[in-house]
Specification:
325 residues
């Protein structure tokens, strides 16, 4: 990591934190029902609106954005490829398959049960992806994301077919496009488990960084490569599954955020994790606020906004040299 990158790292984190604080306040006062600041302090209904709807929605966007960005960073570390993330590697689609199966076989299952089964399905799907990705020639890095797109597309097609046969296509649309409009107090708290996964990732960040050197080099440096691979898969699977269960699929977060932060701060995971989490939260919360304002008083789902914004950012990353970022 260059000296310039080390000097930029504190500034990057502080800027992301400051923007996140501004968006946090703005999110609390953005919605269909106008909520002046004075009303929150004097009107009981205003306080109830904030505590029941606005605050849970804001926290859900922050937790989902931060955890998905970290999941993307870990996925890129495990695959040793900059162009993969859970939604383009079959992880999110496998989680959808798990939710669909539990809906068909156990309709009365609660959110926690759906989250556990979706996590197990995501773990299996991601393991198969990585097992195949590691066999692809390392000299052609674009083969990995291309295979991920095909792999995820096949699983997604299977999910759509099963949902069509069971007359659950409309139900399936809830998971395929991220949306925070239905988030209320009591229906987002499982996302805090994703935050715990982020904390756990920080504790093993040094060993994950060493894994970017490859299997042989990691084992030579005393890393239990297989165990760390399993831990990384669990973190990615749990985060992705919980996000799909609670808010649906939000694309590009785990792809563009780690790439931007790594260009500014380098590849030391312990040093970049806070900035990646804060930047992911900023991106998702900003897109959610934008979705509320584009067609006010109607809403555009955050998955749709993020698809447009994230796609533009990704194209900018592809055509922009790292030295110019």
């Amino acid at each position: 990591m260059s000296t310039a990158a080390v000097k930029q790292s504190p500034l990057t984190g502080w800027i992301a934190g400051l923007v996140l604080a501004i968006l946090f306040v703005l999110s609390l006062f953005t919605g269909v029902d106008e909520l002046p600041f004075g009303r929150v302090l004097s009107d009981g209904r205003g306080i109830e609106l904030v505590l029941v709807s606005r605050l849970p929605r804001t926290l859900a966007a922050i937790l989902a954005g931060a955890s998905l960005a970290i999941a993307g960073l870990i996925m890129q570390t495990l695959a040793r490829n900059r162009y993969v993330e859970p939604s383009t590697a079959g992880t999110a689609q496998s989680a959808e398959l798990g939710i669909l199966l539990v809906t068909l076989l156990w309709p009365a299952a609660n959110l926690l049960t759906k989250g556990l089964i979706a996590s197990a399905a995501a773990l299996i799907g991601t393991s198969l992806f990585l097992a195949t990705a590691h066999r692809l020639p390392p000299t052609q890095p674009f083969l990995v994301p291309l295979f991920g797109l095909v792999y995820g597309g096949v699983i997604g097609a299977a999910v759509t077919f099963v949902a069509w046969q069971a007359d659950l296509l409309q139900y399936l649309s809830i998971w395929t496009n991220g949306d925070f409009s239905g988030v209320l107090r009591g229906r987002y708290e499982l996302l805090w488990l994703g935050a715990l996964m982020v904390v756990f990732a920080w504790f093993i960040a040094d060993r994950l960084t060493i894994m970017t050197l490859g299997r042989d080099a990691s084992i030579g440096l005393g890393i239990d490569y297989r165990r760390m691979l399993q831990l990384g898969l669990v973190i990615v699977s749990v985060i992705s599954a919980l996000s799909v269960v609670i808010v649906g699929v939000i694309p590009f977060v785990g792809l563009v955020v780690p790439n931007i932060v790594s260009r500014l701060m380098g590849d030391n995971l312990r040093g970049t994790l806070p900035a990646v989490a804060a930047s992911g939260a900023v991106l998702v919360l900003g897109c959610d606020i934008l979705g509320r304002l584009i067609r006010h008083p109607y809403e555009v789902p955050v998955g749709t906004v993020m698809g447009c914004v994230g796609g533009l950012i990704f194209l900018w990353l592809l055509f922009r040299r790292p030295s110019d970022v």
